[in-house]
TrEMBL record:
Residues 34-442 form the Major facilitator superfamily (MFS) profile domain. It is a multi-pass membrane protein. PROSITE patterns: MFS (PS50850). This is MFS general substrate transporter. It comes from Coprinopsis marcescibilis.
Amino acid sequence: MSTKAPSEKTSSSITQDFDTPEDRKLLRKVDFRLIPILTLLYLLSFLDRSNIGNAKIIGLVEDLKIAPPEYNTALALYFVSYVLFEVPANIILKRFDPQIWLPTLTVAWGVVTIAQGFVTNKASLFAVRFVLGMAEAGLFPGVIYVFSVYYRRHERSWRVAIFFGGAALAGAFGGILAYAIGKMEGIAGIRGWAWIFIIEGILTVVVAIFAYFVVPTWSHKATFLTTSEKARLLARLDADSDAALIEKFEWVYVRQAVTDHLVWGYAMLFHGFAFVLYSLSLFMPTIIADLGFASWQAQLMTVPPNSLAALSIWSTVWVSSRINRRAPFIIAAALVAILGYIILLTTKTPGAQYVGVHFAAAGVYTGNALLLSWPGENVSAQTKRAVAVAMQITIGDIGAIAGVLIYRPDLAANKFRVPHIISIGYLLFAILVTIYLWTWMKRENQRRDALVKEIKDGLAPSTPEQRQKMGDRDTFYRYVF
């Protein structure tokens, strides 16, 4: 049966059909089951990878007799293993079960974090940081992929923003927690910096055990939904994307991901933002301390910029999801971050430079929250999307490796002037990549609209099987830009 090109009216009616009170109730039920536990896991993940920055300013480096460049090497080793295991972790997830896989990863990195409290030299710190990256590698791309099989495309960005807000909250929560735990100095003969790792690692393991009973499985097997709710959820997904299909793993979809220029674009975009995300999150206590504040003050003064970042994420992404646009907001976030670094570079007083830290944090975290949901919205089929999300994190985190190596002692002169300038360069690169993606997707949507309009009387809508095979290359598929 032939059909006309989908008009705005048709599109709106379809949206309205799946925006009933029953649908909203179903979404709230899914939200309540997925978002709190997965956000908590990511908060703990970010806390356990970045708490070394808090430990550093209360004695870690001095006690382990680590030279400043070796500290940067320890940070980089985390991201090396993170990069190596990102794609394999998501391939395992696709063939396994998130209900078991994600909590197991959490237990693993919690145990490794505890072990970090007992390191005695640089070799043991290097080894623990490498294993920590390996254990944490699968969480973020795994959760993004799980979101893609529960939510329709336009519903994902806001959920990803709430989830990624856990990273900013980890920075705020971590500062307060590090300050409090640091008071345990000398208890049981253990230094305060070691207690930071031990206490936060134990907290992670406890939450992970609870997570085995809460983290959901795949949507088509979800036991927390009734049979009718599950059917409605799958119908919503089927009308929107490929998420309702039960897709068997095939290597052809992996090949589609690694040969798609848009997938590489998303990856390079995160590469630009990851440089500033991790250099800022890991070195924020040091940057603030170098402005002339005491170590205990620096711990607590990380709270306001990270809290502002969380608020910026949630408000900006809410507006972005309402108007269904991503690229303009990513560019705006990058410009806000650049303004922050310019303030850090050009002002002389600690108060003014502290304001710059706020702008940098708000822009950096917000831009990352927006771009990390982009491939989840625009890449189809399922396996291709799983690989694309993992590739984005993998290639992006090579930027993180560069970031933690650039913010090294011999470039710390004038309060990290050179690293801050390089950060601005990375953000400008991210803006250029965003413009490329925005332009290409807009033109491709227009080309497909014209094609459908041209052959409107002879073009039948795609079947689920055709959508699965063609994925985002389907003529009826439209990108969110």
